[in-house]
Amino acid sequence: MFNRKTTRRSILLAGTGAIALLGASVPATFAQDAYEWPQFFNVITPIVGTANHSLAVAWTGEFTAQTGSRARVLPAPNGFSRAAWLNQGEGRIVLYQASDYFDQMDAKEGYATAEAGPTDTRLLNMNQVTGWGYMVRGDSPIQSFADIGPDTRISFSPSSSFLIAGIDALLAYLGMERDDVQLVEVGNYGANTAVIPEGRADVTFTSPTSGPSYEAEAAPDSIRWLPLPHREDDPEAFARYRAIHAGYVPREVESGVTTSHGVYMDHAFQANHVKADEDPEFVYQLIKWMDEQHDSYKDDFQHAHMMSIDNLIAFLDTGALQPLHEGVIRYLEEKGLWKEEYQKRQDQLVELAQAQVAGYQAAMEAATADGITIGADSQQWHEFWADYRQENGLPASFGKAVLDLE
Predict the structure, then answer these.
(1) What separation in angstroms does the CA of 122 have from each of 148, 267, 349, 395?
(2) pLDDT for 5-35, tens place per residue?
(3) What is the pLDDT of residues 179-233, one digit of tens each?
(4) For the chain, what is the mean pLDDT?
(5) What's the average model confidence in pLDDT over 144-170?
(6) Tens of pLDDT along 303-345?
(7) Which label site among 104, 251, 256, 308 has the fewest CB atoms less than 10 Å from its CB?
């Protein structure tokens, strides 16, 4: 199921660890307008075994071979760590999807810290369009959302906000809360899927493109996927679901494990981000290399073909949910792909983001002056941040503010 070449690179690159990011430049062995690439940089990804980690291994291996610049893959234990590591300089590139971005800008869960909170990041490239849905074991009697009830054992991983939101949205659709079902708490993304074939949970929220899903499908009883109800089936229930699960586009699955093909479920545009103040020339040269050399790495992992400019344009055409970096915009302008409507939405997204980041910094200063501890475990801080947003005109839901843009 996984390319042997990719797996070998994963072992070699994932274990390199974080190192200093800025250093002398080295001449590129791949000539690109005489640009001198940095000697090395880290790419922060989800854990080993996920599709996005494997994608990073695929393109960075080829990039290093061509340019002589060492792009190293640094897997983080959860989404909160990925955000913090970017801010702390452990890497220059990090994987986000829209729901991650929205939760970070809202300072939800583990993002409610000084290190991982709202940050002005910009989109670099599209990794893949990934399905996200609800998995059950192949012999499960659960066929739809309607079959989930108080006795249902639901896998629950607090390791990333989007996994939490996936379960909370399911329960909201059903008019239920966490206490109304049996939550089976697990420690990480891999375990969140593994509990299904093991029989320790009945339902989980995961992606059909991830390595753990392929392993689960290969188990003796295999797996199935619950279709997402259509909006018109129950508009009120779907509205409750979408209020929690913003930043997704529903459609039938085309990529991933065979059991998911044709199933109607939410999809996320998953992309790499850099900080807004990242060197524009570095970003421009990197997205140019990714596009012009796509053929050299698109077969190194089964989903790498989705790392295309076409998918980036599809993201823009459906209504961008995160702002792009100026280096990316420059490249799209050169290719004649940047449109006036893209720039209008870009300006709106940047304005929203910068206001949110500035508000968060001001709120932390005010809270600290009042003796309030800033941290994900501080209920007092969560309440202070919510009150501050209301009193200072910041949106109660950053995701909803983005979706409401015209």
Answers:
(1) 39, 20, 10, 20
(2) 333 333 334 444 333 343 334 444 444 558 9
(3) 999 999 998 889 999 999 999 999 999 999 888 999 999 999 999 999 999 999 9
(4) 91
(5) 94
(6) 899 899 999 999 999 899 999 999 999 999 999 999 999 999 9
(7) 251
- Here the tokens at position 18 are 């974080």
Placement of tokens 């996994």 in the chain: 163
SS3 annotation, the chain? CCCHHHHHHHHHHHCCCCCCCCCCECCCCCCCCCCCCECEEEEEECCCCCHHHHHHHHHHHHHHHHHCCEEEEEECCCHHHHHHHHHCCCCCEEEEEHHHHHHHHHCCHHHCCCCCCCCCEEEEEEEEEEEEEEEEECCCCCCCHHHCCCCCEEEECCCCHHHHHHHHHHHHHCCCCHHHCEEEECCCHHHHHHCCCCCCCCEEEECCCCHHHHHHHCCCCCEEEECCCCHHHCHHHHHHHHHHCCCCEEEECCCCCHHHCCCEEEEEEEEEEEECCCCHHHHHHHHHHHHHCHHHHCCCCCCHHHCCHHHHHHHHHCCCCCCECHHHHHHHHHCCCCCHHHHHHHHHHHHHHHHHHHHHHHHHHHHHHCCCCCCCCCHHHHHHHHHHHHHCCCCCCHHHHHHCCC
Amino acid code (one letter) for 388: Y
Average pLDDT rounded to a whole number, residues 346-366: 98
40 conformational bin, left if phi > 0, alpha if psi -120 to 50, beta if neither? beta
